[in-house]
TrEMBL record:
Keywords: DNA-binding, Transcription, Transcription regulation. Residues 249-347 form the HTH araC/xylS-type domain. GO terms for cellular component: cytosol. One of its GO terms (molecular function) is transcription cis-regulatory region binding. This is Helix-turn-helix domain-containing protein. It comes from Acetobacter estunensis. Coiled coil: none annotated.
Length: 349
């Protein structure tokens, strides 16, 4: 089983939650089949109605969710996400789909789905848990700015159900399906699509099924293909990590620019970055940081840089790093490096 770390973007607003553009494949034709104009839907929601040209192409997840909502309105199909997901072949997920389908057995396929999903879609979690002979496949988006994604949730669980049906046949049904959102006006469609009871207003978005099926062989199992796809997904992950590092450098520069005016609040930094402060705070937490520690790290790094340059006195360095009193800077420097700034300068001159 492959385990992957979860990565979420933090930094400028431009680093929004994204999903690999393979999810758009077939959306235009499905909208057209239901009697609406895809170009109208895509233009209203900020999505281009085209297929992805590169495996690493992405689209903003919030725009994708808005497109599903808009498509439901334009086509008059209340359960648009459910039915789009119901007919969505897992291989159309692109690299994620092929990684899952080329796994050896169903249990491994679902574990790989959970492991690779954060690369496919930022700030999102899929987990596969087994207890007491029952398996639970859970899905959720952790970005608080994407709180209403009913059509996305129904689409996703329908696609996950299709993954299992690849191994067990089109008539397979879970024991039950759970959704976090409230029940829509028409719920008969959901039980028809999933073939089981569907409950709404639940703590999670979950497929619940017997653990006995996990040993079923995946019909398209291919170890060589899986290895190649895994390498491609890891490459995409490295690209995202590099983008996160670039965003972090930008955050540090914003903090440094604000420090001469005093200790900057998290709200001030978030405003400069163009995102709500709670989003910035959560992204720092996702990266294993706290705002206080990040400011301290910036101060610690630039304290040495400024003092090495010799053109900055201790008092000037203290001011540039946001200390209202030189004594506060001296105490902080001594805590960091074990001696006062003046002693350090004498030892390194």
């Amino acid at each position: 089983m492959t385990r992957m770390p979860v990565h979420g973007h933090f930094g400028p607003a431009a680093a929004s939650t994204t999903v690999l553009a393979s999810v758009v494949y077939g959306l235009d034709s499905f909208i057209a089949r239901l009697g609406a104009q895809p170009v109208n839907v895509f233009s209203r929601c900020g999505l281009e109605g085209r297929r992805s040209t590169l495996p690493s192409d992405t689209v903003p997840l919030d725009a994708y969710c808005r497109t599903l909502d808009c498509a439901a309105q334009e086509t008059g199909t209340e359960n648009f996400g459910l039915w789009f997901g119901h007919q969505f072949a897992p291989r159309r997920l692109g690299m994620l789909g092929y990684a899952v389908l080329s796994s050896s057995v169903l249990g491994e396929a679902l574990d790989n789905l959970a492991a690779f999903f954060p690369i496919h879609q930022d700030n999102s979690v899929v987990s596969h848990r087994k207890q007491g002979g029952v398996s639970r496949l859970n899905y959720d988006v952790t970005d608080p700015l994407i709180h209403d994604h009913r059509h996305d949730a129904e689409l996703s669980l329908a696609v996950f159900c299709n993954v299992i049906r690849e191994a067990l046949g089109p008539d397979w049904a879970p024991m039950r399906v759970l959704f976090r959102h409230k029940a829509p006006a028409c719920v008969d469609d959901h039980e028809k699509a999933f073939g089981c009871p569907v409950l709404f207003g639940q703590p999670t978005n979950t497929l619940v099924f017997s653990e006995d099926i996990l040993t079923a062989v995946m019909p398209d199992a291919d170890g060589i293909l899986f290895s190649a796809i895994k390498a491609g997904l890891l490459q995409i992950q490295r690209g995202k990590q590099a983008a996160d590092q670039k965003s972090l450098r930008h955050v540090r520069q914003v903090i440094l620019d604000l420090l001469p005016h005093g200790y900057p609040s998290i709200a001030q930094v978030a405003e400069r970055l163009g995102c709500p402060y709670w989003t910035f705070q959560r992204r720092l937490a996702d990266a294993g940081m706290t705002y206080r520690n990040l400011v301290e790290d910036v101060r610690r790094h630039y304290a040495l840089k400024y003092l090495r340059e010799a053109e900055h006195s201790v008092a000037q360095t203290a001011f540039r790093l946001g200390y209202s009193e030189g004594s506060a800077f001296t105490r902080a420097f001594t805590r960091w490096y074990g001696c006062s700034p003046r002693v350090w300068i004498s030892s390194n001159s």
